């Protein structure tokens, strides 16, 4: 099953640069209230891209030294979690006038997730149980195991307002409204799976099995959700939903700007809180289908798992199971709704000495990711010392990710150009379980 073949794309996007005191449209994805802290009256975002992959099994050393990564991925007993995602920021702009700030941004997202997959079950489906010993293994889970891929776009408008704007204190509120453009979707979920996996010779069998199964797909991801082309071919569609972000921001200012014509962002303390990605979108592609089944294999019945090797799509898996006669349809819908990955964000950026700052950033998801209609996200906590020299700024993020563990990287800003990674340093040490990179270019006027 080829879904384990996607490792080259890379949890927190734009680690470090997102809380830079050089504020522009980019910062609104962390907190819309930050737009009122723009360093210039006008900000133009030309492009930005961030790619990230994290998991709890494979290390960089495994990627270099193993030809058969599927075997390594499904070893052990801990559930497999893997996330690969790309975020592309297109043209955006912001304008600030007195206490108001307005912004426009465009983005495309592509995610692929493996969520809480039992390694014994994954090994049986993907490798015909090559990691298991001969005999029988009983698997019993009380949670939903998912494999999921999603591609969508958004056009967002942001408005921010300063409720308090004094010499020493500033308090902003901000709101971002989003038009969502669903592109493609694929999901396979197996909830409360119980069954016995047996390996006889080179053949793996599934017996005494009961589970609730969901198959849902739309657009190109119905054909394959591991190939980049399938994400890019149907990354965005027509308007199919709305979403919003809401945030507040407080600053204890350092000193008054030396140049009143330039909205310099100087502070001793910058605090922010936001709720992001509230909303949902409906997929209505002609290729749509979302069906819930009951999987039941009882008595002397058995399912040959070898036939799932090299399967490319969720649709193919569904077809094999239907042809086996062990699936019973319970509900089916052509159009279906998918929820955005809503997160709660809390952060602080403190000036330690002249030009040296330390920020702390917490991202916590709000909704459970074991629901079939939920786009997944991960919890993170990041500490980032950053040195702001004006034209140049340097970042050293230290991140604790719930899946990949500890990571650290390096970032740099030179004027409006930025380049960095939240895990580049640990990735070079070979034992890291995350790799990411981001870059982009923006500029300010006046």
From TrEMBL:
It holds the Pfam family DUF5723. InterPro entries: DUF5723. Residues 33-421 form the DUF5723 domain. This is DUF5723 domain-containing protein. It comes from Flavobacterium stagni.
């Amino acid at each position: 099953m080829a879904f384990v073949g996607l490792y080259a794309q890379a949890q927190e996007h734009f680690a470090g640069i997102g809380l830079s005191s050089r504020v522009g449209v980019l910062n609104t994805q962390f907190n819309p209230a930050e737009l009122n802290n723009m360093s210039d009256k006008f900000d133009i975002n030309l492009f930005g891209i961030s790619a990230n992959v994290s998991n709890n099994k494979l290390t960089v050393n495994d990627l270099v030294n193993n030809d058969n990564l599927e075997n390594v991925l499904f070893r052990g007993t801990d559930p497999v979690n893997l996330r690969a995602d790309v975020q592309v920021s297109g043209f955006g702009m912001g304008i600030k006038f007195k206490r108001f700030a307005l912004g426009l941004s465009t983005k495309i997202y592509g995610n692929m997730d493996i969520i809480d997959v039992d390694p014994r079950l994954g090994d049986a489906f993907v490798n015909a149980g090559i990691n298991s010993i001969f005999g029988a293994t009983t698997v019993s889970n009380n949670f939903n195991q998912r494999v999921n891929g999603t591609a969508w776009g958004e056009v967002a408008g942001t408005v921010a307002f300063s409720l308090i704007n004094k010499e020493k204190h500033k308090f902003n509120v901000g709101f971002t409204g989003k038009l969502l453009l669903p592109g493609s979707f694929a999901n396979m979920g197996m909830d409360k799976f119980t069954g016995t996996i047996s390996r006889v010779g080179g053949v793996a069998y599934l017996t005494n099995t009961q589970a609730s199964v969901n198959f849902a797909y739309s657009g190109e991801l119905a054909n394959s959700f591991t190939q980049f082309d399938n994400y890019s071919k149907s990354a965005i569609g027509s308007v199919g939903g709305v979403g919003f972000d809401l945030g507040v921001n407080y600053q204890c200012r350092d000193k008054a700007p030396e140049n009143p014509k330039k909205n310099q962002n100087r502070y001793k303390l910058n605090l922010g809180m936001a709720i992001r990605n509230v909303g949902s979108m409906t997929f209505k592609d002609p290729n749509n289908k979302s069906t819930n089944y009951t999987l039941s294999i009882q008595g002397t019945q058995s399912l040959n798992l070898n036939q799932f090797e090299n399967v490319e799509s969720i649709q193919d898996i569904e077809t094999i199971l239907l042809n086996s006669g062990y699936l019973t349809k319970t509900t089916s819908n052509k159009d279906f709704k998918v929820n955005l990955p809503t997160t709660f964000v809390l952060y602080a950026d403190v000036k330690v000495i002249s030009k040296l700052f330390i920020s702390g950033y917490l991202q916590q998801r709000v909704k459970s990711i074991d629901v079939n209609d939920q786009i997944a996200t991960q919890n993170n906590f990041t500490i980032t010392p950053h040195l702001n020299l004006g034209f140049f700024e340097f970042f050293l993020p230290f991140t604790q990710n719930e899946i990949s563990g500890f990571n650290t990287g390096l970032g740099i800003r030179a004027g409006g150009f930025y380049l960095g990674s939240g895990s580049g340093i640990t990735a070079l040490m070979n034992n890291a379980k995350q790799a990411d990179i981001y870059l982009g270019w923006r500029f300010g006027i006046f």
